[in-house]
Structure prediction request, 336 residues.
Amino acid sequence: MATLAEIRARLQQQENKGGQSTGGGDKAIYPHWNIEEGQSVKVRFLPDANQKNTFFWVERAMIKLPFAGIKGEHDSKPVVVQVPCVEMWGEACPVLAEVRPWFKDKSLEEMGRKYWKKRSYIMQGFVRENPLSNDETPENPIRRFIMGPQIFNIIKAALLDPDMEEMPTDFQNGLDFVITKTSKGGYADYSTSKWSRKESALNENELTAIEANQLFDLNEFLPKKPGAVELKVIKEMFEASVDGQPYDPDRWAQYFKPAGFKGGSSDAAVDEDAAAPRAAAPVARPAPTVASKPVDDTPPFDVDEAPPVASAPVEAPKASSQRAEDILAMIRNRQK
Prediction:
């Protein structure tokens, strides 16, 4: 188990570098995004079973590729395919390589945000105070948590605070974390979430559960790293998505599928949403604008930091179809 000093050193190292950096219906994942506005849930994070991991979390970066529908299906509704961003493994992502320059052009900024990577952080622990009456604690009470950047930044800031003297995952002297849901501008907001002030020990039932079930190796809940073939497929899908084409299961279903899609070959398919919860259909929310990107920490609406852009007035964007054609032309010219 890493010490608090080791975590601080590793976080500081990342700061000095500029901050670079699950299966559907799984009851082991606690859906904190389902709590009501004004409610709080108290959780206790536990260490990663992977001794090589300095932190008690793993970072997950995914890219959402929207399609107008599914090829060959009549009256098909729009679908989204999630693919891993290989920057998770320190490698160059073919999608972000194309998207980064878009932020230099105000007319392409909105499109760039659509295809930018979405980060989330997978942790594990106990739910100590649960406001969800319809949540069933599984036989193994060690739950997984999928946190978005807003909650994670609160966790991270406290770890860097010298006033925190004990490791918060310590079994005897650790701290609970209280996730509180409010709203801001019509979107879920978790900025008032915080660590408990008083240390507390795990109780006998919690210690017994750890001994009986063992801790998770959090790496097991990250998507499989794409190989050369999968990277080629990701690039093809990205270009087709930008071009407004439908999802083609004959070409891509054996590699990546929309959530819930049953067609195509399932044997070789990558479950691109293996660590993400399949929550109930969300309440409709107003579409975010380029000028004001809302903060939302629920995994179904995860947001992430995109490259910084100038604060100059946004020019009137071109028509969506024309913008897509221009972007595809840029991509193809670079390939030539």
Summary: The beta strands are 40-45, 58-67, 79-84, 118-129, 143-147, 177-180, 182-184, 187-189, 194-195. Residues 4-335 form a domain with the Replication Fork Single-Stranded DNA Binding Protein fold (CATH 3.90.198.10).
